[in-house]
Amino acid sequence: MDPHTATCLKSYETCCDPKIKTIAYSTAEWTKFSPVIANALTGEIDVEDIVALESISKTASLEIPEVIKELFSKKVAQNSVIDKEDIEKEILSFL
User: Fold this and answer.
1) Which of 8, 40, 55, 62 makes the best surface tag, with the fewest CB within 10 Å?
2) Kind and range of the H or E element at 56?
3) Cα 62 from chain centroid?
4) What is the number of H-type helices and E-type strands within the chain?
5) Four-CA torsion 45, 46, 52, 56, nearest 10 degrees
6) 56 CB-near residues (< 8 Å, 6+ apart)
7) In a domain? residue 94
8) Alpha-carbon distance 65 to 23, whole Å?
């Protein structure tokens, strides 16, 4: 289960009347949350995306989609890291 769906279900369990029937539908692709899912499956902590994807692939017998694998060989287009306190200034300078 991805983090967004887990949050949804936890909110439902905490806040809603259990007598009300509810359907939770998750559309998240497992590759989007690979470090979190790898942690849930294997206990790995703070692993890079590609390591997490490979771990999930092995543990769950899933193929990493080719389009996702290809991302790791592409050139990084944006490599700026902005400190939290400078975000507003950075956005304004971009505009």
Assistant:
1) 62
2) helix 49-60
3) 17
4) 5, 0
5) 20
6) 30, 34, 37, 38, 41, 62
7) no
8) 28
Range of the domain at 58: 3-76
**Token duo for residue 40:** 């849930």
* CA atoms within 13 Å, Cβ hemisphere of 31: 14
Q: With respect to residue 19, please indicate whether it lies within any of the assigned structural domains.
A: yes
Nearest to 50, CA basis, from 77, 62, 68: 68
**78 touches 60 (CB < 8 A):** no
**Six-digit token pair at 16?**
């809603």
How many domains would you assign to the chain? 1
The per-residue pLDDT for range 35-89, each reduced to its tens digit, is 999 998 999 998 999 999 999 999 999 999 999 999 999 999 988 899 999 999 9
Q: What is the pTM of this model?
A: 0.67
Residue 83 maps to a domain: no
